[in-house]
Write a structure and sequence with these properties.
alpha/beta, six-stranded mixed beta sheet, 12 strands
């Protein structure tokens, strides 16, 4: 790799020291960047550091991927070394599920399952993400791109953007939980460009800025250009966001919405006596919210762990409560898949003040793997039986098929349940169906008070900006909140607290650019990489044929 690093590895200049470190301690630099990045994602309070967190790792990425003497399988190994710790940090909240008493699992078995879930899911995500390193190498070693090193940070940013897009569109196996944009939840102006290009654009900017700062360290002769590019990307995006927030005003009719948080963990309430206690808590809090002026009340996901289609008493309870409060109540509970079936949907139904239930029911479209269904159940039961036991339900929860909008007297509400909110396409479907506000009901009690609850909450902030809609978010044990169309949290109730949040929300028919063009930016990133790599491959084929002809 010395022909890339240039000069003597023993020189004492800062540049020589850096390149010496890349050559001899690449694993340390990759781990440092991985860990720093992971912590900035889970702690958005230090989100500003995310724009420089990758700097230790980027010199390795830029130099090693461009070095033709480093084999592709070696690049894949380095990619795995970088991404696995990153995902372990982002999925650390699995550890808070210990012990798995609700699954009647022993402490040793719980430790094995929880550890396997944390390390296993992280590794599963890293196995795909690690391909970014050899893919970067395939493009960076091309005849044309190798001579334009200033494009390398942009190329890697395109790859990371494509990775996040793939994770959101590859079914249950790809979980978009570790989006880099989550680390900017406390820097709302930075997120405003998601209203144009989606959260993928934020990821692109973060990676590109890190890349250019690292580039100026590697090539001091271009420090002004690289520094200017990094500053332009960051400050340009920030100033756009600040200007948008200053100029954008609420439109449409306001209503007062309440999100109820009963603070009863789903780990505790799978019994009849506890369910009665839960119903009493939610009834009292709903009455208080109605007296405080609520026009709409939202309950969390499955806060009543019963099927409304199979229980007359549950039906009567929610409809009578809505009648008493005089406002519609969106209730999280179960509904029957079909007559005669034992399978249940995880649903949201709307109890109405006239004593009926709204005819439109929303069924969760993205059930949680191993929480609500077991992928490849027979295989898992054979190889890792305890992993299948995490799902306490007798049968898998089927996925709902359609997005729906509930047309209520107070406005058109687009409901989402839990994991539905981490996939932008679900919110966009609600928008296409005419939703004026979004209501997210979730059960995050599995996370307890870990950073997981806040990471999940930040996803709703992204959905608010992308759609231009207020979000009413109700969680069993937190975080419940009211989020405006710019992603600002107007009111929130933290983890493991009992109460409700109450705030005015605006019914909007506004159209964001992102809601029109969708993920075109992600597609452009994929196309840019494909064109670069395609040019490289074609050039190599043409060169090989010429050499063959000359030999003949």
């Amino acid at each position: 790799m010395s022909h890339l690093l240039g000069g003597s590895l023993g020189q004492t200049s800062p540049l020589g020291f850096l390149r010496d470190l890349v050559s001899k301690r690449r694993w340390l630099l990759l781990l440092t960047g991985s860990v720093l990045l992971g912590f900035t994602v889970i702690f958005p309070q230090i989100g500003l550091l995310e724009w420089v967190a990758l700097i230790p790792a980027f010199p390795v990425i830029l130099l090693v991927t461009a070095d033709p003497t480093v084999r592709y399988r070696r690049l894949y190994g380095l990619g795995l070394l970088f991404f696995w710790p990153f995902y372990i940090i982002c999925f650390h909240w699995f550890l808070y599920m210990y012990p798995l008493d609700f699954a009647d699992m022993s402490r040793p078995a719980s430790a094995v399952v929880v550890g396997a879930a944390c390390l296993g899911l992280s590794l599963f995500q890293a196995l795909g993400a690690a391909l970014l390193f050899p893919l970067m190498g395939l493009a960076a070693r091309g005849k044309w791109i190798s001579g334009h090193k200033l494009l390398h940070p942009l190329l890697f940013a395109c790859l990371w953007t494509a990775l996040e897009w793939w994770q959101a569109h590859s079914g249950w196996s790809g979980v978009p939980w570790a989006r880099l944009s989550l680390g900017q939840a406390e820097m709302v102006p930075v997120l405003q460009s998601a209203s144009i290009f989606g959260s993928y654009f934020i990821t692109f900017l973060i990676v590109a800025v890190n890349g250019y700062v690292a580039h100026l360290l590697l090539y001091p002769s271009k420090r002004l250009l690289c520094g200017g590019l990094a500053a332009t990307l960051f400050l340009g995006n920030f100033l756009f966001g600040a200007l948008r927030m200053a100029l954008l005003s609420d439109e449409g009719e306001p209503i007062v919405a309440a999100a109820i948080q009963g603070n009863k963990s789903s780990l505790d309430y799978w019994s009849f006596s506890t369910m009665n206690e839960v119903m009493e808590i939610y009834g009292d809090l709903s009455r208080e919210a109605a007296e405080a002026g609520a026009d709409l009340i939202v309950w969390p996901e499955t806060c009543i762990p019963a099927n409304i289609d199979r229980s007359t008493s549950i039906y009567e309870y929610v409809t009578e409560l809505s009648r008493e409060c005089g406002v519609p109540i969106l209730c999280g509970l179960f509904t029957r898949v079909e007559e005669g079936s034992n399978a249940d949907y995880n649903s949201i139904v709307a109890a109405l003040p006239d004593g009926t239930v709204h005819g439109t029911v929303y069924n969760k479209r993205n059930p949680v793997p191993f929480g609500e269904f077991v992928p490849f159940r027979k295989l898992v039961m054979t190889l890792i039986p305890p992993l299948a036991e995490i799902n306490t339900l007798d049968e898998d929860i089927p996925a709902g098929e359609d997005s729906v909008v509930m047309e209520l007297d107070v406005g058109r509400v687009g409901p989402l349940i839990c994991f539905d909110s981490i996939y932008e396409r679900n919110a966009m479907d609600s928008l296409d169906n005419g939703a004026q506000i979004l209501a997210v009901s979730t059960n995050d009690s599995w996370f307890q008070d870990s950073r997981g609850v806040w990471m999940h909450h930040a996803q709703s902030q992204l959905r608010a900006i992308e759609t231009g809609r207020y979000v009413i978010r109700s969680a069993n044990t937190g975080v419940s909140s009211i989020i405006n169309a710019e992603g600002e949290v107007l009111e929130s109730l933290g983890a493991l607290k009992t109460g409700y949040v109450l705030e005015s929300v605006y019914l909007s028919d506004r159209v964001t650019v992102y809601s029109v063009i969708g993920n075109i930016f992600a597609y452009l990133c994929i196309a840019a990489y494909g064109a670069t790599t395609g040019y490289t491959v074609v050039s190599r084929v043409v060169t090989a044929r010429r050499k063959g002809t000359e030999t003949v």
